Amino acid sequence: xxxxxxxxVAGNWKMNTTVGEGLDKARELLAGDLPEDVEVxxxxxxxxxxPMHAVLQGGRVRIGAxxxxxxxxxxxxxxxxxxxxxxxxxxxLVGHSxxxxxxxxxxxxxxxxxxxxxxxxxxxxxxxxxTLQEREAGETLAVVHRQLDAAFDGIDGAAMARCVVAYEPVxxxxxxxxxxxxxxxxxxEAVRARLTxxxxxxxxxxxxxxxxxxxxxxxxxxxxxxxxIDGGLVGGVSLKPAEFLRVVAAASGTAR
Length: 256
Ligand code: PGA
Description:
By secondary structure, this protein is an alpha/beta fold. It has one domain (about 10-250): TIM Barrel (Alpha-Beta Barrel), CATH 3.20.20.70. It has helices spanning about 20-30, 45-55, 95-100, 105-120, 130-135, 140-150, 180-200, 200-205, 220-225, 240-250; strands at about 10, 40-45, 60-65, 90-95, 125-130, 165, 210, 230-235. It is globular. The structure holds 2-phosphoglycolic acid (PGA). 2-phosphoglycolic acid binds near residues 12 and 213.
């Protein structure tokens, strides 16, 4: 059987590093051992994107933005248009829990960002996940379903080829408390089932579903070995190029 899903390991640098430090890390990654069968991306702060794109151009590391706005142009002080990223930036991330919870971003706003990004030539990583309180109340799947249904409302199935879902339990982000492989698999499998219901079986089978939340070189292999996990969205460890490269290596051989 031919592999349909190439694993993706994306490093979300969040609001860390100066431009100079970022360029150094990008060069370190390029000089590292990057397996052919894993797609690698870094999501640095907006200020870094253009100079880092120049450094990474032609190499095997893709570049992405951590957010994007839902309009193309206009009086939106401080926002970044998807039109300004098109043509050179590979990915945008939308719906990260830090934006949802610290900045009050709603499901509807995540949807608008996703659809506007898709109207440009961008690939979109959509992050979903439950809080600890929601997990303890037994609401994990209901929350994830709600976030997926809202994000992908009215999206054309053909555009799903440019979408990736990242399941990131909020309680696992930056806490050192990783979901167990079984917990992560259970929700990633449910994400795929929901995509099948929202679109069709082909979309469910072809869409990459990542796990994120305290992924390290020590736990990555077990997580990525799960049948419905197609790589990871990595925060803290992505700031350490040597360890990040070990996380990337752990995704090698997991294409499905
Ligand atoms: P973490 O962050 O790896 O530091 O837990 C993951 C994320 O927020 O994407």
